[in-house]
Amino acid sequence: MQNKIGKAFAPAHISGIFIIDIKKDPSLSGSMGCGICLEDGAVTEVRPSKETIIRINGIVTGAPTTLSAIGLLTPEPVLVDTKLDIPIGAGFGASGAGALSAALSLNEALSLDLTFKEVAGAAHCAEVTNMTGLGDVTGMTFGGMVIRKKAGAPFRGIIDKIPSRNTKISWIEFNEISTKSVLSDELKQKTINRAGKSRLKELFKKPTVENFMIQSAAFAKDIELMSPRVKDAIEAVKAAGGLASQAMLGDTVFAINDNGALMEFGKVHESRISNAGAHLI
């Protein structure tokens, strides 16, 4: 067991619409809403160690969400190596992807013999407690385009999915947005929840990839977190015949068929919708 290494992948998750639902029990808390998973994400290796150290892209970091998830699963010290090919603080669920891939890897490395529900539950509770996300871990657990119908940890909340191909998603990020600062603003929470309920209702009427993008853009507009550049980029994609919205919660625009419109705003990144959820590799 001493030399055993666990390795797992968790996809990025872009939330397009969400409704905050916080309860005393973090496993019953989280958000309702809808988001998409990407083939880009987090790959994490975990091995036994003399002390717990977390490295992200080779740099030692505090990574509170990953640290909390580990603490919920074992008292044993481990070395965690996470490689992220998504930006942090830009609405891709980097904290959740790091925590979920670390929890899955940890289960294998230490032969904890836990189920997916237990492992993903720890990552979800760590996210909610640290206020780094609410529904990302649930989306990442199942992959694809997950509709979260009832808040809670994976396998405790209620989910559905919008059938989707591995459609290409392009994005451009500008600045970071602190998830914590938005989630702790009571007035902003009310605005988000009012808009979220309205847009999710519209999405249920026509659960397609295209309508998800349309309702997400309307949600982003309703909650007024768009920077001028985000607004301009979304409009440019629309004018070019594509669909775009703001990644929640990030100063980031993601698009389908942007037809080159995002290029004028800076470096454009591309990935595809991943219908595979988090898994060992």
TrEMBL record:
Protein name, per record: Pantoate kinase
Chain ranges of the GHMP kinase C-terminal domain: 216-256
Spans traversing the lipid bilayer: none
Catalytic activity: (R)-pantoate + ATP = (R)-4-phosphopantoate + ADP + H(+)
Organism (species): Candidatus Methanoperedens nitratireducens
Biological-process GO terms, alphabetical: coenzyme A biosynthetic process
Domain (GHMP kinase N-terminal) ranges: 76-144
Protein's job: Phosphorylates (R)-pantoate to form (R)-4-phosphopantoate in the CoA biosynthesis pathway.
Enzyme Commission number(s): 2.7.1.169
MF terms in GO: ATP binding; kinase activity
Involved pathway(s): Cofactor biosynthesis; coenzyme A biosynthesis
Matching SUPFAM superfamilies: Ribosomal protein S5 domain 2-like
Keywords linked to the UniProt accession: ATP-binding, Coenzyme A biosynthesis, Kinase, Nucleotide-binding, Transferase
InterPro entries: GHMP_kinase_C_dom (IPR013750), GHMP_kinase_N_dom (IPR006204), PoK (IPR012043), Ribosomal_Su5_D2-typ_SF (IPR020568), Ribsml_uS5_D2-typ_fold_subgr (IPR014721)
PANTHER family in the cross-refs: PANTOATE KINASE (PTHR42282:SF1), PANTOATE KINASE-RELATED (PTHR42282)
Enzyme class: transferase
Family as reported in the entry's similarity comment: Belongs to the GHMP kinase family. PoK subfamily.
